[in-house]
Structure formats: structure tokens, C-alpha cells
Amino acid sequence: MFTKRFLALVNLKTNRKDAARGERLARLAVRQIMDLQPDHVLLTGDFSNMALASEFELARDVLAPLWDHKRLSVVPGNHDYYTRDSTRIRLFERYFGHLIWGVPPNSSTYPGIKTIAPGVVLLLFRSTHYLPGILSFGWISRDQIDRARAAVNALNPEFAIAAFHHNLHKRGLMVELTGRMLYREQLKQQLLDLGVNLVLTGHDHHHLEYVVSHGNRSMQVIGSGSTTLATKGHIPNFTVLDLDTKHPKKPLQIKVFSYDPAKDEFHEGNG
Ligand SMILES: [Fe+2]
User: Fold this and answer.
1) Strand, coil or helix: what is 261?
2) Tens-place pLDDT, residues 94-128
3) Using one digit for the tens of pLDDT, what is the confidence trace for 169-211?
4) CA 156 – ligand 1 centroid, Å
5) How far is the CA of 204 from the centre of ligand 1 (A)?
6) In this predicted model, what pLDDT tens digit does every residue of 201-240 receive, in sequence order?
7) What is the 8-class DSSP label of residue 113?
8) For strand 3-10 and strand 40-43, is the pairing parallel, antiparallel, or unpaired?
9) What are the tens digits of pLDDT across the range 136-152?
10) Cα(81) to centroid of ligand 1, in Å?
11) CB-based contact 9:44 (threshold 8 Å)
12) Beta bridge partners of 4
């Protein structure tokens, strides 16, 4: 059984026109997350805009207080594979791979598999691929699903969490045409078949939560809103999850912390 504040869910997507503000919000969020003392923190990708080493270095600096394999997990976003070269040399993994596979690395393939608490397994999938131009479609390969199945069978977790960047829900026409998760209905079924209890995603900049069910299986899906994107109609936020596996029907308490510019802090509530 596991009952604790266990996960803060952060999406660092920022706006390249207002990078300084994004960085300030990210540093503030990290400070407040440290104060909340989560057992684990997950970042759902898009650490960068153009997959530049300088952007990854800045992200590493911002995340320094959390920078530990046991405390922090990451998945790559489409912006982190923005160029063919950075994808080819696995630049994202050079900076963040130890947060996925440990030190020394237990693997170099996705999904990363981490036991983050007794009986709680986190599967870190890669939905991101290098694609030219404005295309940012996501998909998760059959190999990754097969490796996840083998891990779940071996570990037999009480609670399994799948994390990847691309969202599973339908969004606006432009994203549907250029950047949706491909084969998402098939993927939902594969995750249900794996026995996944919780899916955590990024990509969409708004927080959302819903349940996917089929037959006698269901899983909670939570999309983390952007913590650093402060554009019209968007309030920066992060999500905190409390997990209590003693209550299998409702094991999760979901809290959203939104940025209040008047107080210059994140506080619980939707803004
Ligand atoms: Fe994205």
C-alpha cells in the first residue's frame, strides 16, 4: 500500500517570445514544488523550443533543486526533438537520460521503467519523433508496448502509471491536422490491456482530467497544463497528485496549483 503526496506534474512549455518570464515562472514553480515535498516529480516534455543545447542547459539549471533520478522523471516532447541532428545524436537523452534510466543506466531504450514507491511503477514512454516543418505527430511504437508489458508482468505493480508527451484527447483542427497522437484509440486499449491505472500527458497547455474505460478496466488520464506559458486565456499551473492505494475505487486526489500574478505565487485552485 502506498499513501503519500507522490507526484507533482509539470509542463515546462514556454513561449519563445517571452522566455525570461517563462524561466522566472519555472524557477518559482520549482521552489513551491520543493516546499510541497512531493515524493516524485514528473515533467511531461517540451523543455526547449528548438532542442538547442543552451535550452537544455537552462532547463537543467532550473531543475537543479530536483535533479535526482529518485526524485525526478522526464519524457521528451516534440520540441525536444525539433531538429534532425539533435534527434540523431540523442541530445535530449544526453542531458536527461539519467532521469529516465538511472546511473549507471539500466537501459537506453524506452519506456524507462522506474519503481517510484513500493508497488508503484512509472513507465516513461517516448511519443516524440523528429518530423519536418510544422508536423509534430506522436505515436508509441509496438516495441515500447511490448517492453512495457514484459516489465509489468515481471514487477506486478499495485499501481501502474504511463507517462508520455502527446495527449490522448481530441483538440482543435490545427493540432489534429499536424500534431495529434496517432492511433490513439488503439493506444488507449493497449494501455488498458497493460493494466495501467493512470496516464499522465503534456502537449496540450491546459490541465484536464478524464477516465477511459473499456469492459471492466478503466484508467484515469491527466494532462498537465503548462507551468510557464502565460499567454491570453492561459493561466500557468502545475498538478499535484496524492495517491492512496488503500482506496482502490478512488486512489487519487488531484490538485491544480495556478499562478496568481497579484501575489506572484502558485496556489491551489484553477485561477
Ligand atoms: Fe508539445
Assistant:
1) coil
2) 999 999 999 999 999 999 999 999 999 999 999 99
3) 999 999 999 999 999 999 999 999 999 999 999 998 889 999 9
4) 31
5) 7
6) 999 888 999 999 999 999 999 998 888 887 777 889 999 9
7) E
8) parallel
9) 999 999 999 999 999 99
10) 10
11) yes
12) 243
Residue with cell 493506444: 187
Q: For residue 137, how far is its CA from the centre of ligand 1 (angstroms)?
A: 9
Q: Which amino acid is at 179?
A: G
The architecture that CATH gives domain 3-268 is 4-Layer Sandwich (3.60)
- Domain borders along the chain are 3-268
User: Global pTM?
Assistant: 0.94
Task: Strands of the chain (E only): list them.
Answer: 3-10, 40-43, 72-74, 112-117, 120-124, 159-163, 198-201, 208-214, 217-223, 237-244, 252-260, 265-268
What residue spans of the chain are helical by DSSP H? 19-36, 53-62, 84-88, 91-96, 98-101, 142-155, 173-178, 184-194
Q: Which of 32, 18, 10, 29 is nearest to 230 (CA)?
A: 18
